[in-house]
Amino acid sequence: MRKLPAFISIATVAVLALTGCSTSPSDETGAAGIACVDSGKASEALKVSGKADAEPTVTFESPLKAEATEVSVVTEGKGDAVATDDIVELGFSVYNATTGEKMNAGGFGDDLGAPITMAEESTVFPALMKGVACATYGSRVAVVSPPADAFGDAGNEELKVAADDNIVFVIDVKSKIPATANGDDQTPEDGFPTVELAEDGAPTVTIPAAEAPTELKTSVLKKGDGATVGEGDTVVMHYSGVVWSTGVVFDQTWGKSGPTAISLASVVPGFSQGLVGQTVGSQVMIVIPPELGYGAEGQPAAGIEGTDTIVFVVDILAAG
Question: Which keywords describe this protein according to UniProt (predicted)?
Answer without folding.
Answer: Isomerase, Rotamase
